[in-house]
Write a structure and sequence with these properties.
single chain; alpha/beta; 10-stranded mixed β-sheet; globular; disordered C terminus; binds alpha-L-arabinofuranose
């Protein structure tokens, strides 16, 4: 039995819905045959987008979607993706898989997709291979008031008279790598140039800005990058609203056929996210820039060897997603919830037929992965107020429980992951500073093994089940499982648990 203290009076801040964001790149089978099937396809679609994906996304309320890359963004001409004459080009990934970029999905199509699923748009601007003026033109094309400029008229001619609402502009992608192999000092100056001319266009006289600007942060634990970038950008007049970093926890063993050792090796790496958040944020705080440069983890996930997905390796980076990926997802989202004061957005990489995907599709077939099921289960956290959880005796990874909790409209949501792939665990949630009001509902996500995953032949090998309440709020999680408990609570109640030991500080 493991006690999880829910320290109700200790509010950690609001969980930005954007912590549950997504990433879509023009890569492999992500759009091509995945999310995008084309308007004339026999596969059910909504204006060219696969209906099963659109409907699946609607169920998990995607708050924001990042596009068009990734590395792809850094050789992308936005003009290729507007109007009726779309050039076919060698995109960033063409040399990897021989597939040319047809530009069928461009600005209008992507923003239509965001509208269909109710997500905000996060566009990544090419910093490496175009001028600040070309980037500014894209921003003007998207945001200029109807009829106000030649670019606004061009947008109207292309079917969208009213300006698009772009919530976030990312300035570059991985500029320490594919995005130009820049030094942090050089990128910081590029950021300042691009952000100044783009920010100028978005700035209103009353101080508001029509879209936020995210600067491109570090690769994993490259704290030197964060120091140099934060120092330069926060010490300038350039507008900035957030700083990204990317962290892939990689792989251990095969995507599906992995061992117990592989299981723990990968989870251990996934847990590093917490330290990364603390340390990057501490640097930002050191510069007094936390109001302007809160963290954006705009690429995260597992990165297994390709070939385990439905295309058998044809789609670049496509991989199967097992209960191991689901537990990585749950523990990562729990970390984001527990650090919602430091992280303002996160985007899992990538939505479909790629790394750590929520959907796998091929021809008319489309399934959701265990990772999708975790996003579905964690949905009530979006926009809720996080409260502190303390898991007792949580040292050893092989018996660890990952937890986070939040409250919204008087309903408490507790999400849990059993980090053990060998032992079941019973979790005893103890509410401090409030009282349970009823028995609530509990849900369990698991398969018949840690390698369990969905396929076109067995799309429900991993499903979420409602578990009947027994009046104690206790939950038993099998090995390699994720769970969610939702119970109405009455706040302000005296602490009824005074005979219990004081919770420690391990969360
Ligand atoms: O998600 C695949 C690639 O990983 C992205 O294009 C890039 O940003 C990262 O290195």
């Amino acid at each position: 039995m493991k006690t999880v203290y829910l320290v109700y009076p200790e509010k950690l801040g609001k969980i930005a819905p954007e912590l549950y964001g997504h990433f879509t790149e023009h890569i492999g089978g992500m759009f091509r045959g995945g999310v995008w099937v084309g308007r004339d396809s026999a596969i059910p679609n909504i204006r060219g987008f696969r209906k099963a994906v659109v409907e699946g996304l609607r169920r998990i309320a995607p708050p924001v979607i990042r596009w068009p890359g990734g590395c792809f963004a850094e050789t992308y001409h936005w003009r290729d993706g507007i109007g009726s004459d779309r050039p076919v080009r060698a995109g960033w990934w063409t040399s990897w898989d021989g597939r040319a970029e047809t530009n069928e999905v461009g600005t209008h199509e992507f923003l239509d997709f965001c509208g269909m699923v109710g997500a905000k748009a996060y566009l990544a601007v090419n910093v490496t291979s175009v001028t600040p003026m070309e980037a500014r033109d894209w921003v003007e094309y998207c945001t200029a008031p109807r009829g106000s400029t030649t670019l606004a008229l061009e947008r109207e001619k292309n079917g969208s008279p009213e300006p698009f609402d772009i919530a976030y502009w990312g300035i570059g992608n991985e500029n320490w790598g594919g995005g130009g192999n820049m030094t942090p000092e050089f990128y910081a100056l590029e950021y300042r140039r691009f952000a100044t001319v783009i920010g100028n266009l978005l700035q209103r006289r009353n101080g508001e800005r029509l879209g936020e600007l995210i600067c491109g942060g570090a690769n994993g634990r490259d704290y030197a990058w964060t120091r140099a970038l934060t120092g330069s950008v926060s010490g300038s007049e350039a507008p900035v609203d957030g700083m990204s970093f990317h962290f892939y926890c990689g792989t251990a063993g095969d995507a599906v056929d992995f061992s117990t050792e592989n299981w723990y090796a990968l989870l251990e790496r996934a847990e590093r996210m917490e330290d990364l958040i603390r340390r990057h944020y501490a640097i930002v705080q050191g510069y007094g820039a936390e109001d302007r440069m809160k963290l954006v983890v705009d690429e995260w996930g597992c990165w297994h060897a390709e070939g385990s997905g439905p295309s058998g390796g044809q789609n670049l980076f496509e991989q199967q997603s097992t209960m191991r990926d689901a537990v990585v997802t749950a523990l990562t989202l729990n970390i984001f919830n527990n650090h919602c004061d430091k992280v303002r957005m996160a985007n899992v990489a990538q939505l479909c037929n790629n790394l750590h995907s929520l959907f796998l599709a091929d021809g008319p077939d489309c399934i959701v992965t265990p990772t999708y099921r975790v996003f579905e289960l964690f949905r009530p956290h979006q926009g809720a107020e996080a409260i502190r959880t303390v898991v007792e005796d949580n040292g050893d990874l092989a018996s660890r429980v990952s937890a986070s909790a939040s409250v919204k409209d008087g309903v408490l949501t507790l999400t849990l992951a059993n980090c053990s792939c060998e032992e079941s665990v019973t979790v005893d949630p103890v509410l401090l500073g409030a009282e349970w009001d009823g028995t609530g509902k509990a849900y369990l996500l698991c398969g018949d093994s840690m390698q369990a995953h969905n396929t076109f032949a067995r799309p429900d090998a991993v499903v979420t089940r409602e578990v009947p309440p027994d009046g104690t709020h206790r939950l038993t999680l099998p090995p390699a499982a994720v769970a969610m408990l939702q119970v109405r609570v009455r706040s302000g109640a005296p602490d009824a648990e005074t005979d219990r030991p004081t919770p420690g500080t391990r969360g």
